[in-house]
Amino acid sequence: MAMHLCLVLLQIIVLQLRPIRASEKFLCPTECGNVSISYPFGIGKGCHFDKGYEVICDNSSGSPKALLASVNKLEISGFSLFSMFTVEVNVPAISLNGGGKNRTSNNIGKGVIDLSGTPFTFSSGNRFIAIGCDRENDSSDFGGCLSICTCDPTLYPACYDSLCPLPPQVFIAQTYIDSGNIPQKCQSGFVVEEDWVNHNYLTNPHDLKDQPQVPAMLNWGEKKGSCDEEYNSHSISCNLQKTRCLTQLSSGHVCLCSSGGNYSLEKGRCSGWLICNTSSGYNCSKCPDGYASNPLPDPFADDLCKKVFIKSRKSRVKAIIIGCGSGLGLFILLIGIWGLRKFVKRRREIKLKRMFFKKNGGLLLQQQLSSNEGNIEKTKLFTKMDLEKATDNYNANRILGQGGQGTVYKGMLADGGIVAVKKSKLVDESNVEQFINEVVILSQINHRNVVKLLGSCLETEVPLLVYEFIPNGTLYHYLHNQTEEFPITWEMRLRIAIEVSGAMSYLHSATSIPIYHRDIKSSNILLDDKYRAKVSDFGASRTIKVDQTHLTTRVQGTFGYLDPEYFRSSQFTEKSDVYSFGVVLVELLTGQKPIRSTDAEEDRSLVGFFLQAMNEDRLFEVLEARVLKEGKEEEIITVAILAKRCLNMIGKKRPSMKEVAFELGGIRASIGSSSL
């Protein structure tokens, strides 16, 4: 019996408790119609964060509607699936001053949407549509608008709609819009969600005129990262079930936490999402107090701010010691790596220098210099760094000229001396001897009309020679590119011929072993500051023993200056240089290039053209006008006959360079040195 009484009493207690739990369960409704409501939004007292998030569930129409109490009771159509901080609402049209025959206005609103004082702002995902405009693109204040014609403009004046992005001049802090902000040549305007525009309006623009309301997006916050706050550190507001809470932080930020899931309300802490209220007027680009910008934010998440946990003094000291020790260790390691790298680089440079020295014929040069020690002046060996600095790392602006043997750069040495640096082309083993030959030959020559070799550098990938700098360019340039400012007079031509012949006579006769140049031409004759001739480019030169000719398997020289006998037999003699000099004499007399620019094939060779004129007694017809004007007839004839003798097809019948220099010197003696 006692047991039965106990069971009845327990049943009564359970029946009394059940309605209490049911009423508590529905104190904060989570739905209104088909709209789900979640904190900070709420229906009823104590269910929302503050009045700005209050939702009214209106059943007056027979169908429940969720309304935002703080914004003209706008109807909530739902919350965004992509962002919990965006709410979808239905907003009325904005009535404008325009009128039209094809638009109705019975459902047009008063033209004000005011979000000021609320936690909401217009989302950038909205678009603005002005309808019933008088002419295309009338809404010029908006910029980037798309005009859509909805009727025949010849019948009705208001036939254009303008689809625009949200213009900054329409919204004040993105919270306020009224008809005074919109161009007045349209009937009405809408703030519309972009997806609705794409799926509804653009499909049938005519439907918009009958719409009393259209969907739009309102933002109430922006996620900045994760938060973790103690209950008592800030004011906290929760729904009645204590399943969701907001803690107010500094600078317009809040911490939204919930029970369950990844975040919790346990142990007196609120752990959840850090949110910045976008309408609070605060700078959402900065983090609140106690948080710092995340140096490595997740590119796929809004993880811009990170909680800063203050460590104890002991932990800070330990961290400082570890940091300093690590920094010092890293510094020592970097110094060691730098020193090792420098050591390896120096060893590699030394090895490369030795390899290049050997590759560029350094051993061969040493051998030849030692075997001809009495005849060769000591040349300076420049370092790679010296010449790189002198030529500004071989800057293209420093190029003086380019030829078959390499490129010549203008340089300035550390002592201020101006030099010409010849950077030879990449050489193989067959060309090393030719390069070393130039060094040895120029080391033997000491003549005022021959370019002086100052030194060389063999520790680079390509061999380098350093010459004295000859400032006034080549004879070729002055003969074939004459200007009125500096014409080449007959006296200058005769003097240049005498100086070049003297230098060649010295090379052929005065040196211990005859030296053949093998490439005499006007572009290899340089002019110094006093326009004295200097013979250059000895890259193809050879030293020849007395009574010995040089037989080669490859003909070297320049077309137009090349001895035809050498071309046929590949046998180079001193008379081959005489032939090339004869071509230079003809250039001085006629002012024409060795290969003439003419259509007649037989007249293209300057030598053939000149010899034919001599044989037909037409010499004065082919001479340059300045030569005819300034030169004496007997001088001109003497030089012309000498040139003809130099150009004899049979080498043995040509004069020697010594005879040529003597005959030209006789002309100077006859006219007097003062005239030169």
From TrEMBL:
Cellular localisation: Membrane
A molecular function GO annotation: protein serine/threonine kinase activity
Reactions catalysed: L-threonyl-[protein] + ATP = O-phospho-L-threonyl-[protein] + ADP + H(+); L-seryl-[protein] + ATP = O-phospho-L-seryl-[protein] + ADP + H(+)
Keywords: ATP-binding, Disulfide bond, Glycoprotein, Kinase, Membrane, Nucleotide-binding, Phosphoprotein, Serine/threonine-protein kinase, Signal, Transferase, Transmembrane, Transmembrane helix
Residue ranges of domain Protein kinase in the record: 394-671
Gene3D superfamilies the record matches: Phosphorylase Kinase, domain 1, Transferase(Phosphotransferase) domain 1
Keyword Membrane in annotation: yes
Topology relative to the membrane: Single-pass type I membrane protein
SMART domains associated with the record: S_TKc
Membrane-crossing residue ranges in chain numbering: 319-340
Annotated Gene Ontology cellular component terms: plasma membrane
Signal peptide coordinates: 1-22
GO biological process: cell surface receptor signaling pathway
Keyword Glycoprotein: yes
Protein name per its UniProtKB record: Protein kinase domain-containing protein
